[in-house]
Amino acid sequence: MITFMLSATRLHPPLLVFCLLTVFGLLLTSTPGSAGKRRVQAHTLVLECPDGYEFVARIEGETAWLFLPGETLSLPHIPAASGAKYGDARTTFWSKGDEASLDSGEQQHRDCRNNRARAIWEHAKLSGVDFRATGNEPGWYLELSAGRKTVFVGDYGNTRYTFDTPPPLTGQTARITRYELQNDEHRLILLLEGRPCHDDMNGEAFETTVKLVLDGRVLQGCGRALH
Q1: Which of 31, 50, 101, 163 to pair with 6, CA 20 to 30 A apart?
Q2: Do residues 64 and 58 make contact, with C-beta atoms less than 8 angstroms apart?
């Protein structure tokens, strides 16, 4: 922590501004812990407990948002001997990796485990993604946010392209929605057809069949609306 005092009566205005900017820069570089906390990305857990209880936890910086059956809680971070702990006078939530527990006084749920496959979709939903699609061989996924950005990640995570999301072109008769996306280097045509689809690797069912044409390359997959 840096403590300083500046007297405006003893410094010319340009020099005063320079000193303020310099000290501000030192503060940013001399407190990596606080700066790091601001840059930490949110992550989401879909927790399944042995007693059949399920809930979603989203960690954002120093706060854990718990989406429980019938209520949503916001819990501040509190000290813990290991893992991460959040709580208030009534509820305590603890997590470490994919393990978690929840204690609400009246109820305790122990040995809960994160379902990573479900958490990916829930994280996208809570991050404001409106539609998500995925495909295989090679593995790819697409996340579309209406009026904002569309992100395509392909070749098992080795390529990533971002596009501005345009208004859709919808054909009511054929039940196909078409998006034509373009950035400085790539063109992507996205076709969403309202008919059932199954993941060809794990058999998961989806309500939308998806076709992508990326720079002339055709990819097939499945997807669902998140909102």
Answers
A1: 31
A2: yes
Could you tell me which residues come within 8 angstroms of residue 6 by beta carbon, excluding any fewer than 6 positions away? 16, 19, 20
Please state the pTM of the whole predicted model: 0.79
The closest alpha carbon to 104, from 49, 141, 159, belongs to 49
How many CB atoms are closer than 10 A to CB 123? 19
- 51-95: pLDDT as tens digits: 999 999 999 999 999 999 999 999 999 999 999 999 999 999 999
Instruction: Determine the average pLDDT of the residues in 155-168.
Output: 96
* Per-residue pLDDT reduced to its tens digit, 25-37: 433 333 344 444 4
Give the distance, in angstroms, between the CA of residue 158 and the centroid of all CA atoms in the same chain: 19
Q: Which of 132, 129, 123 is nearest to 222 (CA)?
A: 132
